[in-house]
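job 3f2a | input accepted
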Amino acid sequence: MSQASITPAAPHVGEAPAFPYFNEEHAMLRETVKQFCLKEIAPYGEEWDEAGIFPRELFKKAGDLGLFGIRTDPKWGGSGLDWWATAAYVDGLSYANNGGVGMALMVQSDMTLPALEELGTDEQREEFLKPAVAGDYIAALGISEPGGGSDVANIKTRARFDGDDLVISGQKLWITNGTRSDFILLAVRTGDEGYKGISFVIFPTKTPGFSVGKKLKKIGNLSSDTAELFFDNCRVPRRYLLGELNKGFYYVMQNFQGERLVAALGAVHKMERALEFAINYGKEREAFGQPIGSFQVWRHRFAEHLTSIEAGKWLCYRALDLINRGQEAVREITMAKLFCCDLDQKVMYDCMQIMGGFAYTTEYPIGRAWRDGRLNTIGGGASEIMKEIIAKLSKL
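job 3f2a | predicted structure (396 res):
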């Protein structure tokens, strides 16, 4: 059976969002992103996985469509839309069936540029935000280090003041877009040990003393580059300090909320795409004289997953509603990240299981979805950290 023989989606799986806050503009955005993914990304998944990177030109194509500035003020080249538009964008990205490309694009659209717009000066926005929204610059986020990812308060990369400059030395690890970024939003230590001594710095990668140690080999998200970075007495102007001195820990924690919410949404829509594929496969693949999807064990398992995915989607929508209205949403976002990303592991397992040996090949999209999704419970805050945050916020 070839991929082309799989019939269209089953009813009620992966349909366009239906919620009072979604409007025609959101639906058009979702469809635009979907068609972009089906044309510019999905056909090249295996080729880019083997190369370990996708063409830089894709950033420019995404920028031309406005995908890097969905919530950005039009003054800086964005569309000035709301969080529901971001949800529509993430939904559309799921049609790429390529977590590596999706992650690379969302690092730019939702993990670096919102912080740059919110914290930056007009001079910084003009120099870095505008060209990144247009897709002319590639952005990266430099937080994780060899000594820890979730332990942000223990950052070792240090920046010292020398006249009008900051001199940066240290190492970063697991940096998406790291091998080819034009600038990095870099978390550095500018003060004492602990969370009160961290700052954000805009770091141009053409700075002398900066080097890429190696492009890391991964088991998933193969189409995106992930790098180890070194900073050897790199000198940048003090004016590249982003936001207030020694407030970087708070900025990182605030930035995590958007990252975790889009991760949860991405998991939801990835599960929808994978489950619709598996359900249709089960309708066409026969064994013991009947379609394997008609066996009760699979019908009931899919019914459970459909229910859980719907619950996860509405947990995301609750968090979206709060954050879109400027309300506190840390608890809800953390719950959404925990629930949806853990659920992704279970859904991908069963989608592979019903397909048997076919799922264990690169010919079908389920294998890539399974590999790429494994990062969901690790990146952006591990599930164990999510549970601890929920426990603290719930006063347990």
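job 3f2a | The first strand starts at residue 139 and ends at 142.
job 3f2a | closed
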